[in-house]
Design goal:
alpha/beta; Rossmann fold; about 10% strand; globular
Length: about 230
């Protein structure tokens, strides 16, 4: 499946996430190569539970799952590797080039991802966590803004995005640029954010800003910031 597959938020999904009076779910998003995962790991290190939409999308199509069987039935056995797992590269290339195929794939996987996301959030809520971070690469594109406020956007200049993604994925500049341009412009995400973390500088600066944002989230949502102590340096 294509990395960062989208899933739309239905009214039922919104009600299920909001029906958690002691738990606030906030959204974390950004663009390719902005460093969103770095911020997500830092929030997790501070003790904020993390729900990762990309990870959920992988889980619902693992070998032998109803999700993978549905994809193979819809598209054919070419979507499977010799070991019976999803051939992610082949499927990603196919749906990137064929929007109608992407729509069909989303129709199969989105309900599964939605159900699993609600399950994970409810599990954290049952443990008494007042905050949950929902890491969704395509949050705005998936119409999730209403259900995931406040929203944190991690930003970086285009050239920084390109260099990071090229180094990380071993992809060409053209390939990375095409992926970036297929998403909502980062400037649009920043304009709709409640909080922005600029990740164009040193890592220490980014993490310091992430700490400021976490403190602001706690203040806005009435959560004791003492629940999230700063990790000790090794």
């Amino acid at each position: 499946m294509a990395r960062s597959e989208r899933f739309a938020c239905t009214p039922s999904h919104r009600r299920q996430l909001y029906n958690l009076p002691m738990t606030h779910v906030f959204g974390l998003t950004g663009g390719i190569g902005t460093g969103k995962s770095t911020v997500a790991r830092h929030f997790a290190a501070r003790g904020v539970p993390l729900v990762d939409a990309d990870q959920l999308a992988r889980e619902v199509v693992t070998k032998g799952t109803p999700g993978l069987l549905a994809i193979a039935s819809e598209f054919g056995d070419w979507v499977l590797t010799a070991e019976g797992e999803l051939d992610r590269e082949a499927v990603a290339a196919h749906v990137f080039a064929h929007p109608e195929a992407r729509a069909r794939l989303n129709q199969l996987t989105h309900p599964l991802v939605r159900a699993l996301s609600v399950q994970r959030v409810q599990e954290f809520a049952s443990l008494g966590h007042p905050l949950v971070c929902y890491d969704v690469p395509l949050l705005f594109e998936s119409k999730l803004a209403d259900v995931l406020r406040p929203i944190v956007v991690v930003s970086a200049p285009l050239e920084v995005q390109l260099s990071r993604a090229m180094a990380r994925d071993g992809a060409s500049r053209e390939a990375v640029l095409a992926r970036i341009e297929s998403q909502l412009p980062l400037a649009d995400k920043v304009s709709q954010a409640d909080f922005v973390i600029d990740n164009s500088g040193e890592l220490t600066e980014t993490l310091a800003r992430a700490d400021q944002v976490l403190a602001a989230l706690c203040e806005r949502l009435g959560v004791d910031p003492g629940r999230y102590p700063t990790p000790r340096s090794p």
